[in-house]
Give the backbone structure.
Amino acid sequence: MKFVILFVALFAVALAAPQRDAETLRYDSQVDPLNYKYIVETSDGKSVQEEGDVQDLGTEDEAIVVRGFYQYIGDDGQTYRVDYIADKYGYQPQGAHIPVTSK
């Protein structure tokens, strides 16, 4: 019974905690038929930047290649950043906090 009371109390405190509302500080985008790019930054420290373009146009290897990054501030106060590329080899993220596997 004490556990249930404690759980309900902790749940109520969690619900009462203020939620962080973020405002968009920057939003830029450019979209063309063969490429695009955008940048978004918010007041809570999140940001994303991405660009993509069609490569090998008109061939059977035609594909969109995407490059970019996103970053955010974790609960521990650290800023985490993930740089990535997505191409015919798949999604390839890199970041200081992402484990690297050996091949």
The longest helix spans residues 2-16. Confidence is low (pLDDT under 50) at residues 1-17. The two ends are 52 Å apart (CA to CA). Residues 34 and 54 are 5 Å apart (CA to CA).
